[in-house]
Amino acid sequence: MILIKIGGGENINTEYICEDIATLVQKSEKDVIIHGANFVRDELAEKLNIPTKIITSPSGVASVFTNENAIDVFLMSYAGLVNKKLVAKLLKYGVNAVGLSGVDGRLLQARKRDAIYGVENGKTKLITNSLTGKVEKVNGELLRLLINAGYVAVLCPPAISSENEILNIDNDFASAILAGELGIEKIVMLFEAPGMLEDAKDENTLIKNIKKEELGEYLQFAKGRMKKKILGAAKSFALGVRQIYLGDGRVRNPIVNLLEGNGTIIE
Amino acid sequence: MILIKIGGGENINTEYICEDIATLVQKSEKDVIIHGANFVRDELAEKLNIPTKIITSPSGVASVFTNENAIDVFLMSYAGLVNKKLVAKLLKYGVNAVGLSGVDGRLLQARKRDAIYGVENGKTKLITNSLTGKVEKVNGELLRLLINAGYVAVLCPPAISSENEILNIDNDFASAILAGELGIEKIVMLFEAPGMLEDAKDENTLIKNIKKEELGEYLQFAKGRMKKKILGAAKSFALGVRQIYLGDGRVRNPIVNLLEGNGTIIE
Q1: What is the pTM of this model?
Q2: Would you call B50 an interface residue with chain A, using a CB distance cutoff of 8 Å?
């Protein structure tokens, strides 16, 4: 079984991705999909005049400040628009897809963060009212029920807390917990770059191989969202994952190419 | 098993409804839920400057004109915002809810209408570009899989065509096909009135009992959305439903009260 994580960037080509997932499914490879939707979310938030506010932690990790309005935008873009269009596209390619958010059947259960530190204009502030959480538990029973019946689950945030609050979560960390619960050994991550780059601005600086023991070093150089990917990767290996493939979600045959080595492999 | 249809009006109290569903579930009564979201949809459409356009057929049946923008608003409001908040509320009351749209696993498969007739300023026009369909098939296998595992399915439009177009559908007609597929004999419909009224403007004109044979007569007097409810009811009886309860979704214990006779019973 492969966990395929589809980034939510503007130029991600879901048509190519769905075509490739259909090829995997035809080869009897079971897949679980988790996706983002940040471009669509930001666009919708802008239109509704609720702009996305990014918080950067003192260690440089970026996350979204989430109030109730932001949760609404989250539900509309992730669980509504992007999830269902992805499901329809997979159905078109013959993949028996079912879309679920982390709320459904407590699929992704998270613990609410009491407080997070954010740096603003050089000052560290304590932020206590963000509806943000960390996934602790996955409803593997529900996922196995669907997978064993031949469905491909298409998952997305938000998650839900044990106190039934709908929470924004880090998708990379959620992927790690998900892989752990389902005993998945391979994760494929598709985003808007050919893989992990030494210089984020230069696509010719692709890092082809990373040993999982080296992740700590890379964490020092990584910026913003890439930091979360590395932290998520480290957690994934701790939970039994053996290979993580990072690659380009904009090109034709993105998954097949990536599994053949065109991208970054962490192992 | 009871099919509970929750209307999408502004004053529907989902807190009361979810509390009542929890009571039914505790009594080992299995439920399937289908909901609307028209108030939230219209509000969102207004904010995004894509106002909802109503088409009235020559026989007086009202429906929504649906282009691609309207489908997006549909997905955001029905499958995103309203579905997931309803699921979270049910989880809060201890109901193991899973939300799915008609797109997921082809749950509601519809046939696209090639053309519909609409009356505008007294003139009948042929409208050929509306993404509207009629549900023909329900994925009962997926629903039974979830129900037998103890989950309560929370369903909503849109549906999907065999050509993989996402389509707006009539929820009352979909409920009939759904009840037929699952062999459901009781449908509970909650909306913003104490039941079917002789005079839509006077809540003291409640019709307590309607014989299914009389539905044809009521169709002549019913207006707008109520026409669809009657057409949906007639289809439901044709597919094996034995009782339809129509009642108030704004009051405490809406379902328990309705099953005890406070509302309209068609049988």
Answers
A1: 0.95
A2: no
B123 pairs with which residues across the strands? B120
Over residues A119-162, the pLDDT tens digits come to 877 888 888 888 999 999 999 999 999 999 999 999 999 999 99
Q: What tokens appear for A187 in the block?
A: 């994760």
Burial of B234 (0-12, 13-18, 19+ CB in 10 A): middle
- Judge contact between B245 and B6, C-beta under 8 A: no
Contact A76 B78 (CB under 8 A): no
For the stretch B85-126, pLDDT in tens is: 999 999 999 999 999 999 999 999 999 998 888 887 788 888
pLDDT in tens, A82-107: 999 999 999 999 999 999 999 999 99
CB contact at 8 A, A77 and A52: no
Rounded to a whole number of angstroms, the distance from the CA of A263 to the nearest CA of chain B is 32
Q: b/e per residue, B187-221, with b = 16+ CB within 10 A? A: bbbbbebbbbbeeeeeeeebbeebebeebeebbee
Name A208's Cβ contacts closer than 8 Å, sequence gap at least 6: A195, A261, A263, A264, A265
- Put simply, whether B87 touches A (Cβ < 8 Å) is yes
In angstroms, how far is CA B185 from the centroid of its own chain? 16
The answer to whether the Cβ–Cβ distance between B142 and A160 falls below 8 Å is no
A134 closest CA partner among A102, A101, A104, A105:
A102
Pairwise CA distance, residues B211 & A11, whole Å: 57
On the question of a cis peptide bond just before residue A158, with omega within 30 degrees of 0, the verdict is: yes
Give ipTM to 2 decimals.
0.95
Please report which helix (H) or strand (E) contains residue A80, including its range. none
DSSP E strands, A97-170: 97-101, 108-112, 116-120, 123-127, 132-138, 152-156, 159-161, 166-169
Average pLDDT over residues A164-173: 96
Helix (H) or strand (E) run with residue B144 in it:
helix B140-148
Question: Could you report how far apart the first and last alpha carbons of chain A are, in Å?
Answer: 17
Mean pLDDT, range A207-224, rounded to an integer: 87
Return d(Cα A56, Cα A225) in angstroms, integer. 10
Q: Nearest 5 degrees, angle CA B66-CA B68-CA B74?
A: 65
> Among residues A168, A171, A152, which one has the least CA distance to residue A160?
A168
